[in-house]
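Annex B, item 7. Sequence and structure tokens for protein A, then protein B.
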Amino acid sequence: MVCVATFERMESSQPTGTRINKYLSEIGYCSRRAADKLIEDGKITINGKVPEMGTRLQPGDVVEVSGKEVGQLEGGKQIYIAFHKPVGIVCTTDQVREKDNIIDYIDYPTRIFPIGRLDKMSEGLIFLTNDGDIVNKILRARHQHEKEYHVMVNRPIDDQFIEKMAAGVAILDTITFPCEVEKTTPTTFRIVLTQGLNRQIRRMCEALGHRVIRLQRSRIMNIELDIPLGEWRYLSEEEMVEIYARIAKAEAEPRTFESTSSDQDLPLAIEPNSEENSEQPN
């Protein structure tokens, strides 16, 4: 039998505090992987000293990134927002170089960042958060999370166009994954992707001789676009429970294909003022 004193010694020997990469992720500064890269590059200091990988923070520690102190967001509350992005707004956190950035447009009182992107000339649903851990879990193509779009092109489409879009189109030195495509009018169609190649739908249409006139993302996973243009709302607790259930299911399933998507294992998906996140579908 192990005595109480032994238990106390065992407990006191366990590492305490929060790992620096986890801390930066939890406050919404960047993902854990991005934090590890910042540590490798010597850009993070704790109490003025560059830490080793895996260093744990203790109460009172001062964390700085590139000489600027970072701290816990007010209340430490995790924020999940659904936003109906208008055409002309750029999904970047760079508020200096891009005047039409999504952060200034929403003007949320604490730091948030977009999960993935929707290009400047597209409108529709996009998520924003301060939770660094959830970003890559949603973006990874191998998880096959669905994103639905409604598209208008410049000339009539036929059954052959729909069949080719659904089967896969040669763009960016790869073949797009098979997907669900449905013609809705002579010049519009609905498409459901599990990929995030750069400007994917626009490139697919161009490869088949069509040009996109209007593109709207109407769904991400279980969240439908139900917000007026230019407005946002918080995701409900029930919606987040379903999102995390889908993530858990995807992570538990064996990989069924080799992903070539540009959002695969993004290393710096939410690095502040970074353009590293190449997931800019459509």
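Protein B:
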Amino acid sequence: MSTTKNINITLKIWRQKNAQSKGNLETYQLNNVSTSSSFLEMLDQLNEQLVNERKEPVAFDHDCREGICGMCSLYINGRAHGPDTGITTCQLHMRMFNDGDTIYVEPWRSTAFPVIKDLVVDRSSFDRIQQAGGFVSVNTSGRTMDANAIPVPKADADKAFEAAACIGCGACVATCKNGSAMLFVSAKVSQFALLPQGKVEATDRVLNMVRQMDEEGFGNCTNTGACEVECPKGISIENIARMNREYLSASATSDK
């Protein structure tokens, strides 16, 4: 027997024209929301209502809607991606809410993630951090060794795979009281640091990525652990410890 029902909710949504404008929370009443619908489908329903009322729809980011890309980053009722764990916003369903609930929806809050419009933020700072060190050298002399022919201990391969699961959504930054990107950066550093292909640039990589992180204006880590709790992919803070070790080692041996 289906447990789907329709609920009526009140939405308090952050509206902001652009990064230079002063934003504010606006209130919307939305009725007959199916509890089987996803949170983004609920926002689609709201925007359809706003368009019919000749009002400007709410801008929000989305793409795959399958929990893969991380673009659907929203701060919902004081939690990154909403009141559930191990999911992105597109995987959050309205059955998590009750009839008559008031739901607060805001963009990520970070100096390094300026608001573009409404619930959309600019996360290109993450791209610049990856560009600062997220690559490996490959021998293309004609005697290139197939990657599968390079032995990698299973424990290292598993840890690298777990770190590579980071989708760069920014929930770690949004939930951190310091606005720290340490979990994200450490996942990207660990992804390469654990594999033999990543050893060539290991020293430059961690120094460059940490430097770029600081230049973007992210805060530092104080081991609160909120980032790991709210990460939709369960990235472990063990990666932060690994990055710190890589950074100290690189700092001691680098002549820069």
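Comment on protein B: The domain at 123-138+147-253 is CATH 1.10.1060.10 (Fumarate Reductase Iron-sulfur Protein; Chain B, domain 2).
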